[in-house]
Specification:
The protein has 4 helices and 7 strands. The chain is an alpha+beta fold and 169 residues long. Helix 2 runs antiparallel to helix 4. The longest helix has 33 residues.
Amino acid sequence: MTSTALRLPLFLATVCLFSAPVTLVRAEDAALAAALKDTTVTLQGGLKASEREGTPISAKFEIEDGKLQLSVYTMKGNDFMEVVADPKTGGIAKAEKITDADDLKAAASQKAAMAKAPVSLFTATETAVKGNPGFRAVSIFPELKDGHPTAEVTLLQGSTFKKVTEKLD
């Protein structure tokens, strides 16, 4: 039987173990919110700019190697590209074929959702932003729910993040 003297340290260790991922996510969110404060480039602008490399299938602002970037996955035929837009100008900084197995798996899932979607990610993002005054879109990811294409849009206002679901059919 566990003694009372051991229960408290075990309880505290368990709380710390399960709280750590939440703290890390919040730190990432805080860093992203801070980095986005001074940028005027929008997720919608990144989606439009990336169209020269194919049809956008997902997009997100992220901190990569300590720097803010706007990453858009596109599809053209059977190929997937990651298009990185400059968050200061909105112009394409680079476009690379996706080769990482996990990224390819995510792109294939996004492609499957977009194959059934008559509504573009650009339109879904615009709808989410218009329905939430004062918020800006920071990511959009399509998925199939009960056979219907939807998109999860993450919005930001100040340091408050909010997720909304938009129908793509």
